[in-house]
Amino acid sequence: MDKYTAVVLAAGAGSRMHSKTKKQYLMLKGKPVLYYSLAAFEKHPGIGEIILVCGEEDISWCRQEIVVKFAFQKIKKIIPGGRERYHSVYEGLKAAGSCDWVLIHDGARPVLDQEILDRVLAALPRYRACVAAVPVKDTIKRGDSRGFVTETLPREELWTIQTPQAFSYREILDAYEKLMEQKETQVKITDDAMVAEYIHGTKVKLIEGSYKNIKITTPEDMELAAVYLREI
After folding, report:
1. pTM exceeds 0.90
2. Which pLDDT band, with edges at 50, 70 and 90, does 13 fall under?
């Protein structure tokens, strides 16, 4: 039987929250933000193991205040992240070891429902590279350095990309290994699908996510997430 591992990223600083506490550790409905995404993977029967990637200085806190306190059973490793997000992903992938498929998720996305995971896991063996995503609702315009519109983009072709992003473990690990061998890249890496696209030319399948699957970035997002969590 194929093994599915989740790599959950919690190494970011979250400077836009204007808080001394990192956003993934802020209290949301009585629990740390990070708890909720971990709990979603813990609950799903298809996920066999969770790798938690956090700041090196936070490992002990995560172990005691999240893993032990909430009795998580699937979190097998807590490891330190790297300088940038993609460095942290690479560390998580190396720690994942012998799995067949890997799901990479931002720990600051607490409203991850089981239906999204169902859809991603169902599509993954067929497409080998999948990302949760939703169609954009607003008109998107490209602007120049002076703040003038240069182009209106076709909304029907545009998607907001979320996590989890899921891949064949061997293929995404190979892509990250090749990325790390490069001293410079021609593109700024902002998500894992970009690594697969840039290194291997992978065609990534868009999987229906949820407009509630928001990333905590600003204080207003905490209020919205609290409302959404009551609905899942």
Report:
1. yes
2. confident
Quickly tell me which residue has 């933000």 as its tokens. 33
Q: What is the mean pLDDT of the chain?
A: 95
The pLDDT, as a whole number, for residue 18 is 64
Token pair listed for 91:
């560390």
Q: At what angle do helices 192-200 and 85-96 cross, to 10 degrees?
A: 80
> Among residues 13, 18, 17, 95, which one has the least CA distance to residue 57?
13
Which string of DSSP letters, residue by residue, matches 16-67?
Answer: GG--SS-GGGSEETTEEHHHHHHHHHHH-TT--EEEEEE-GGGHHHHIIIII
**Cβ-contact 113, 18 below 8 angstroms:** no
Region of poorest pLDDT, from 29-38, 79-88, 119-128, 165-174? 79-88
Give the per-residue pLDDT at 112.
Answer: 98
3-state helix, strand, coil in the chain (%, to 5): 40, 25, 35
Q: Which amino acid is at 222?
A: M
SS3 for 12? coil
